[in-house]
Amino acid sequence: xxxxxxxxxxxxxxxxxxxxxxxxxxxxxxxxxxxxxxxxxxxxxxxxxxxxxxxxxxxxxxxxxxxxxxxxxxxxxxxxxxxxxxxxxxxxxxxxxxxxxxxxxxxxxxxxxxxxxxxxxxxxxxxxxxxxxxxxxxxxxxxxxxxxxxxxxxxxxxxxxxxxxxxxxxxxxxxxxxxxxxxxxxxxxxxxxxxxxxxxxxxxxxxxxxxxxxxxxxxxxxxxxxxxxxxxxxxxxxxxxxxxxxxxxxxxxxxxxxxxxxxxxxxxxxxxxxxxxxxxxxxxxxxxxxxxxxxxxxxxxxxxxxxxxxxxxxxxxxxxxxxxxxxxxxxxxxxxxxxxxxxxxxxxxxxxxxxxxxxxxxxxxxxxxxxxxxxxxxxxxxxxxxxxxxxxxxxxxxxxxxxxxxxxxxxxxxxxxxxxxxxxxxxxxxxxxxxxxxxxxxxxxxxxxxxxxxxxxxxxxxxxxxxxxxxxxxxxxxxxxxxxxxxxxxxxxxxxxxxxxxxxxxxxxxxxxxxxxxxxxxxxxxxxxxxxxxxxxxxxxxxxxxxxxxxxxxxxxxxxxxxxxxxxxxxxxxxxxxxxxxxxxxxxxxxxxxxxxxxxxxxxxxxxxxxxxxxxxxxxxxxxxxxxxxxxxxxxxxxxxxxxxxxxxxxxxxxxx
Length: 657
Ligand SMILES: Cc1cc2nc3c(=O)[nH]c(=O)nc-3n(C[C@H](O)[C@H](O)[C@H](O)COP(=O)(O)OP(=O)(O)OC[C@H]3O[C@@H](n4cnc5c(N)ncnc54)[C@H](O)[C@@H]3O)c2cc1C
Hints:
Layout: E1 16-21, E2 24-27, H1 31-44, E3 51-55, E4 71-72, H2 81-91, H3 98-117, E5 124-125, E6 131-132, H4 134-139, E7 159-160, H5 166-185, E8 191-193, E9 195-202, E10 210-217, E11 222-227, E12 230-233, H6 263-270, E13 275-276, E14 285-287, H7 295-299, E15 305-306, H8 313-316, H9 318-325, H10 334-346, E16 352-354, H11 356-364, H12 369-386, H13 388-396, E17 406-410, E18 424-425, E19 451-453, H14 465-486, H15 497-514, H16 530-544, E20 553-554, H17 556-573, H18 581-606, E21 617-618, H19 626-629, E22 631-638, E23 643-650
Parallel strand pairs: 1-11, 2-3, 2-12, 3-8, 12-19, 20-21
Antiparallel strand pairs: 4-7, 5-6, 9-10, 10-11, 13-18, 13-22, 14-17, 15-16, 16-17, 22-23
Helix pairs in contact: 1-5, 1-14, 2-3, 3-14, 6-18, 12-13, 15-18, 16-17, 16-18, 17-18
Bound molecules: flavin-adenine dinucleotide.
The site of flavin-adenine dinucleotide has 42 residues, from helix 1, strand 3, strand 4, strand 9 and helix 14.
């Protein structure tokens, strides 16, 4: 075992230390963070309460919506909110926090109406039933959604948009709100971009309370220490902790945005917050290699997916799946659909095809040539908006998807709380809806006092998507302001500024100190570089915790073996080295990924059933066991001895079937 590393800044310079004091600290400027900034400003500025937002990237194009989207996946419209809860519950295999989902359902449309006010073009249905894209609808002076305009629904809850600049529109409103707050509170700066936050800081006099956060600039040689009364974790989900399907020159390509490295779960856990359903993951079945979106193809263009023999695998595999998973096979949800696909792939009936060719030709039967051209343009724009690499894959493979079917493939696993998954932090509900045990004072506050979360960060309440994450960010942002009004004292840090600087920059000191020990700085007995560490983590996760190489299969014995290796990974992670600021970012991302990954494995080990077939399987408990496991699985992390405690919490059904 190597000696513990020390950083006395003997080999590198000390960074400039910037200390910033604020009341509400929003970490992450994605959909949830932008929603929080917008809403917090409305309540904070008149009270002189300061709001600050920090993002590791540039807020205009950061997070999962960075490239743009072509549909808003959560819009309630004329549907009863209760039905939205039923849909989320059914897709997430019966266990959700119905108070959180109901609460979201009643606010989400307000965010969508704001998006349209801010300039997001929303598709509309004309009086004669034709679909107009957002620009056509604006040209035809069609009323906004708020004023009764009819959206174009691609599914019951999804509406179409011209969304290539979606994130820019949302970010602009957030930045204006921050600027308003900056002026109202007379501070120099309250929006920090390209600052990676590595950990939260608890109050030394009350460690169950939040006091701040620490991070560093990925561009300038600076350490940032933030002091706050309330903080909000809105740093998204977790990608790249499993070995991906992409290899060699395509390595790094993933469905989930590559900058969300599990920071939300790791920072929350290290600060003492309770996690929920961390065994859950999302395995998107997407166009092979390019990860192109399938939603519009299934829902709007009515394309069919089959095995190589033209069979609908959801029909042919129904009886076999029903025998294992009973009622969960009916009203087939996202993971169950994957399960049927995986059954065929394992039986050698692949490749699986999406019949893009037939879908467009069929639509052509009822459309004029001009309408068809327009629809086709929209179909391709769907890819250019969200996943331009898909167009690259098609071109590289010399295929025209309007003429031949395209392959689908279930991806490597991701953890998230806002798409078709529900891993995340355990937070308080709204208080006016749901049992008492789901409410502890402030809506969306975690079990750490003053620490809030939203979007992918909050568990047990998936299917929020972009609009819901924004709406949940607004709810959390407003609650955080209320918390600051009730709790006006700042906490104190246990760590000095020097301690924090030494800790954050240690990997750079390590590299500078030992780099000349060998002729190749990549191979060194004193340290490991972050790229290698990431590969080690991905290999263990893939081979033992149910990655693509075992068709998502794992078991108690496999998990325990994997966790043994995770122990070594954690030990070696203390010796990661960084040559520059970019590598320093990679080091701390790995640190977050490792903790998030360990939580994932511990939860899968704890839940002795296969609740989410098609996402993962416990080979030793292949079925669903409602009698023992229709409950939440929660956990806490003790950072002093690096151990997990996993336990059950009651699930309460609030909305009847
Ligand atoms: C490929 C894909 C397609 C999707 N398609 C749709 C769709 O068609 N329709 C729809 O409505 N929704 C869709 N969604 C869902 C939607 O994008 C998410 O629900 C939403 O973006 C989640 O919001 P968030 O704020 O939690 O996370 P994000 O929007 O991802 O934001 C996270 C933010 O945190 C920052 N960050 C991360 N770590 C740190 C750190 N340590 N320090 C500082 N900052 C940090 C990131 O830079 C980012 O700005 C899609 C998601 C994905 C991944």
